[in-house]
Amino acid sequence: MNDTLEAMMLQDQERTDVNLIPRPQTDDDIPLSRTTSHSSEESDTANFHGVINAINFDALASVALQARLACGTQCSQSKSQQELSIEIQRPPWTGSNNLVYGIEFSDGIKWVARIPGNGIDSFDSLEVSHFQNRIHVSRFLRLATSIPIPEIFTWSSDCKNSVGVPYTLESFAEGRLLSEAWIDNAWSSEEKRIRTLRNLARVMSELHGFSFDKIGSLAPDLKVGPDVYMAFDQDKLLAGEDLFGHAQKRGPFNSAMDDLLEGFEEPEAVDGQLNQLHGEHALLSLALHSLPSLLHLNGPFALGHPDFNYQNIFVDVEGNITAIIDWDGTCITTRALAFARYPSWITRDWDPVMYQYGGEYDDHTDEGLREEDSPAQLLRYRQEYASALAEMGMPPSKYMPEDTLLSPIIEAINIAQGQSINRPWILMWLLYWAFDGIPPISLNKFCQKYERGEAHDWIDLVKEAFSRMWHGEERDVHEYEKRYLRFRQWMMSYPDSVVVTSCS
User: Fold this and answer.
1) Could you tell me if 91 and 101 are in contact, meaning their C-beta atoms sit under 8 angstroms apart?
2) Rounded CA gap, 38 and 304, in Å?
């Protein structure tokens, strides 16, 4: 890592910890904040009532004003605190795990306050570590790249601060969420969509410059530390508890296989019943062990966005990237799962249970909104994205086209390992892909034979097919669409399929 950059990063960290956390003022000094409203369903904030009730909005306004006055050039037109007033937008925007309150100063400058939903429930040392990781990563990437990431002006990870909850105060992400723009016929033309993808590839290619010897998370000292992530207890979640998860720690790892196989254990048997999960686990194990060495499984490793999807990307009217948000849990991993991967919304066909093209479950059917992109469109977008990355001139030691072209396969395997609902459908697609559209056995037939101890020949056959599946997709987008639709027909054609029966 560049010594000057490291020194800047460590200096910035020291300044943040010591000087930029505002001390609470006396009651006489705290200006009253006004609030504005935007349309929001009550259900949007239902899970956040506890943390919302804990927020001291007057203290939040005071902290924001103090931080603003410490920001130098942005305050050149406002010489004193008395010359500024503030509005806090209420109710807030909500994500899965965070509240975001818009903040507007009287001179037109906009910020946001980002508050974690679990800021009053737990927030032990691991939660604090997870919270602070995004701050360290965001500040590092703002120093080291031109990736448009909101600036974090000040923050607190203390639940007992004057605001009452942990928070970050950061710059407002200008533009429009790509998740909204992409499906809006009034905004999105094919030309604009492709321009957006190519701009995104250019932005993400900047991450190729950082190499690491382990898999994990970027620590404040710029070394690789354990990956701290948010896990969920499914039983508690169904009971309305553990809504925002709890922090856990894993790694760091010396290889991608060590990472992927961590916690990959045989499911427990079910007495007196054929257990489909055993066969699924066996197939997934074969897929995992088929990963080729050209994916740099033993390093060097690279940075990537932890949730590289369009709900975390803002664009302007021309399709240029204006902000990339939510770097919580930023990953250091093999390049095909890091900066070189495709954005998630153009690989939806590789996760069949989530992909609703051409079915009764299409969720974008309102007037003026597009439905799901077709398989042909998705492949065309992948081709454009891969082409844009290849044009960035990255050295072969830092990037190879195969890192991108093979990323849908390893991403699908990674999803199947972590998501039991997605797993059987992904396994069916991998079987179809590996056997070039002519799979000799259905998923459920394999699972039944495996449970009876009769699958030895099938295991050898699948193992050989999986070893051959690591190749790029065909160039003809129309042929690919025909192939994918044949897969959908094959997937739904087995009356013995427990998966299809239970989900259709």
Assistant:
1) no
2) 33
The full DSSP string for 204-228 is HGGGGG--BSSBBEE-TTSSEEPEE
Say how far apart CA 299 and CA 214 lie, in whole Å: 7
Backbone angles phi, psi at 138, to 5 degrees: -60, -45
In 20-124, where does DSSP find H-type helix? 49-54, 57-69
Confidence class of residue 67 from pLDDT cuts 50, 70 and 90?
very high
Domain 178-216+251-503 listed as CATH 3.40.50:
no
Contact status, residue 68 vs residue 104, Cβ threshold 8 Å: no
Contact 369, 183 (CB under 8 A): yes
Nearest in space to 52 (alpha carbons), one of 168, 172, 164: 164
Instruction: Check if the beta carbon of residue 82 is closer than 8 Å to that of residue 102.
Output: no
451 close to 275: Cβ distance less than 8 angstroms: yes
Contact assessment for residue 426 and residue 412, using Cβ atoms and an 8 Å cutoff: yes
Question: In 10 A of CB 412, how many CB atoms?
Answer: 23
Q: Could you list the beta-strand ranges (E) of 70-171.
A: 86-89, 93-94, 98-105, 110-116, 152-156, 167-171
Question: Roughly how many angstroms between the first and final C-alpha of the chain, as a whole number?
Answer: 52
- What span, in angstroms and rounded, lies between the C-alpha atoms of 92 and 45? 8
Question: Beta strand 86-89 with 34-36: parallel, antiparallel or unpaired?
Answer: parallel
Q: Does the pLDDT at position 500 exceed 50?
A: no
Torsion of CA 165, 169, 172, 177, to 10 degrees: -40
Where exactly does CATH 3.90.1200 map onto the chain? Answer: 178-216+251-503
Alpha-carbon torsion (450, 454, 456, 457), positive or negative: negative
- Determine contact, residues 223/251, Cβ cutoff 8 Å: no
Query: What is the spatial distance between Cα 451 and Cα 155, in angstroms, rounded to a whole number?
Result: 53
Q: Is pLDDT of 323 > 50?
A: yes
CB 431 within 8 A of CB 439: yes
CA 457 to chain centre: 39
Residues whose CB falls within 8 Å of the CB of residue 340, separated by 6 or more in sequence, listed in order: 208, 302, 304, 389, 399, 403, 404, 407
495: pLDDT strictly greater than 70:
no
Least confident of 36-40, 134-138, 165-169: 36-40
Phi-psi label, residue 242: left if phi above 0, alpha if psi -120 to 50, beta otherwise: left
**Strands, E, within 251-372: which ranges?**
302-304, 313-315, 321-324, 331-333
Q: What are phi and psi of 89, to 5 degrees?
A: -70, 130
Task: Find residue 184's DSSP bridge partners.
Answer: 369
